[in-house]
């Protein structure tokens, strides 16, 4: 307390001057309309800038929560898409299928489950990534994995609560894809060089291919629904010794920043596999 009184006594003149200035400004801004309006304008501008900065900072710290909400919403929307259902044959039915129907009587064919990528590699010949979903959440081997922008990989190993996927950036990865505009199919793989580009082969030269054309998953894929983005044509290689084009494809998925993913389940895959295996057995 003694130090406070000493401080006031020492700086009394300065403190008295500050108090008088504040009183003068109060009288000026409250009893003079011009100065009052000017003060309110400046105060509003300063307050607005402070609030804008505060909102930007607050928005930044809420991005993680917003991203998680968007992932959940995308999962729900994907599960409602029409192409995830097949129309049943209503001409004859011997038993009631246990697979889910939508309100129009379509069979559900595809099911989507959101996940987070908790580990990822891009610098090797054979790259993999790990997601935080496993057997307890319904993930099984050979399920497809897609990113928010395109195909990402295939589940190869599953534990109770995690799963490892073979990335498209893997020398063993093969994907059936097609040109969106014409429907011509080919095979996509990675040559082990640049993580931004894939290679597509077996496209006949009788068709027209242009830089920028879209590549999507084909109807022959059992791991991904038809029409999932694979990438876009970055270069058309015309091999004179072959009747087929080789395409350099810019990946739709950014493997450098792979954070969110969706595990895709084909609910008819086992039935299709069993049927096709029966033909091989009979041979």
List the helices and strands and how they pair.
Blueprint: H1 2-10, H2 12-31, H3 33-61, H4 63-78, E1 85-86, E2 107-108, E3 110-120, E4 126-131, E5 144-146, E6 151-158, E7 163-170, E8 175-179, E9 185-189, E10 197-204, E11 214-217, E12 229-238, E13 244-251, E14 260-266, H5 269-282
Antiparallel strand pairs: 1-2, 3-4, 3-14, 4-7, 5-6, 5-14, 6-7, 8-9, 8-11, 9-10, 10-13, 11-12, 12-13
| CATH class category name of the domain at 175-257 | Mainly Beta
Which sequence of SSEs, written as H and E, runs from N to C? HHHHEEEEEEEEEEEEEEH
Number of helices: 5
> Overall 3D geometry?
elongated
The portion of residues assigned to helices is 25-40%
Q: Mean pLDDT, rounded to whole units?
A: 80
Annotated CATH architecture of the domain at 175-257 = Beta Barrel
- Distance from N terminus to C terminus (CA atoms, Å) equals 102 Å
Q: Tell me the total number of β-strands.
A: 14
| Main sheet: strand order | 3-4-7-6-5-14
Backbone CA Rg: 31 Å
Spans of at least 5 consecutive residues with low confidence: 87-99
CATH topology title of the domain at 175-257: Thrombin, subunit H
- Major sheet attributes: 6 strands, antiparallel, barrel
Structural class by helix and strand composition: alpha+beta
CATH superfamily descriptor of the domain at 175-257: Rod shape-determining protein MreC, domain 2
Proportion of strand residues: 25-35%
């Amino acid at each position: 307390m003694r130090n406070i009184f000493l401080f006031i006594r020492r700086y009394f003149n300065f403190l008295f001057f500050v108090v008088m200035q504040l009183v003068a400004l109060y009288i000026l801004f409250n009893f003079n309309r011009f100065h009052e309006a000017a003060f309110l304008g400046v105060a509003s501008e300063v307050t607005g800038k402070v609030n804008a900065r505060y909102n930007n900072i607050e928005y930044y710290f809420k991005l993680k929560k917003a991203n998680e909400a968007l992932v959940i919403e995308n999962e729900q929307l994907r599960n409602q898409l029409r192409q995830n259902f097949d129309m049943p044959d209503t001409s004859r039915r011997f038993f009631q299928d246990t697979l889910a129907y939508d309100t129009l009587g379509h069979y559900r064919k595809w099911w989507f489950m959101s996940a987070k990528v908790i580990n990822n590699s891009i610098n090797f010949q054979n790259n993999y990534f790990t997601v935080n979903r496993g057997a307890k959440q319904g993930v099984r081997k050979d399920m497809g994995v897609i990113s928010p922008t395109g195909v990402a990989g295939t589940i190869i190993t599953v534990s109770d609560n995690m799963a490892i996927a073979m990335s498209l950036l893997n020398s063993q990865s093969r994907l059936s894809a097609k040109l969106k505009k014409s429907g011509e199919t080919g095979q996509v793989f990675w040559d082990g060089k640049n993580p931004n580009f894939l290679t597509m082969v077996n496209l006949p030269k009788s068709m027209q291919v242009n830089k920028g054309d879209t590549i999507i998953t084909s109807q022959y894929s059992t791991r991904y629904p038809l029409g999932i983005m694979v990438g876009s044509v970055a270069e058309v290689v015309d091999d004179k010794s072959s009747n087929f084009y080789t395409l350099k494809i810019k990946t739709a998925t950014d493997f450098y920043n792979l954070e969110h993913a969706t595990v895709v389940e084909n609910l008819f895959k086992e039935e299709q596999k069993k049927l096709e295996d029966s033909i091989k057995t009979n041979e």
